[in-house]
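Late entry, written up from scratch paper. The run itself happened at the end of the previous shift, but nothing got recorded in the book at the time, so transcribing now.
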Amino acid sequence: MTVAPAAAPTAPRAALADATRLRDVHLTVTDLERSLAFYEQAIGLQVHRRDGAVAALGTGGEDVVVLHEDAAAKPAGRHGGLYHVALLYPSREELARVAIRLAVTRVPIQGASNHGTHEAIYLADPDGNGLELAADFPREQWPDISGPEGYGGGPAPIDLDALLQAIAGEGLTPHAAPGLSVGHVHLHVGDLDAATRFYRDGLGFAVMTDLGTAVFVSAAGYHHHVGFNVWRGRGVPPVPADAVGLRHWTLVVANADELAAVRARLQAIGAPVEEREDGVLARDPSGTAVLVVVEG
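Output as recorded:
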């Protein structure tokens, strides 16, 4: 008897369209000049525009990071809010180039991992805002992240020698290439069930991985657009308004009908929704804000 090979795992289906993506993140910092030096020299971003205490940076296209200076902002503590923002480089070579910039500028890193779906370098900006600098592997190489061979098994160490070999012989490149984007945001929350209700039933993402202490959700079968965890402790309070960290992140949906559907789902679960000229601002149960806007 011939046994057919097992079918490849099918990604959970999100309520959001496959075109859904992330855009700019807005961060509170205490010293704008210090932060600009870091994001330009170490990360490789360029200033798109500056207006007083606010500066928008990217690689020449859409804004990627928008910095808001608040000299009185307090350091982040044991509460909800930002764990890290993943800046997704368009190629492995670009990840190697930023690794060289970090070495040249003597920026300390907190770790470096191979997650199977992507490689990542972890660090913090001068105010302690967490960053993950990442590059995806081709999707056909991704493991099934819902199973034991995926994120549940933990990451492997990054092969730094192999990464740097991708740009062997190159000199220092001062700027990141076009195509850098926000790959995902990872958040601290106080209650996984409440957060899952917001991100799955409200925004409309599909749950890709549930580790028991962290959940990863996405659209279009991506490994994750949002992660949230209780690693600071279950029941930690919401993010305070006067701390450094994530002011809001931006979710781009396909069209006005998608935006209306997101609004309706959020209202149905009782999530606070604020109408803005550019879209809808909502807050998860731990106080982290997301601005939902229409593509284009």
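The first strand starts at residue 21 and ends at 29.
(Scratch paper discarded after transcription.)
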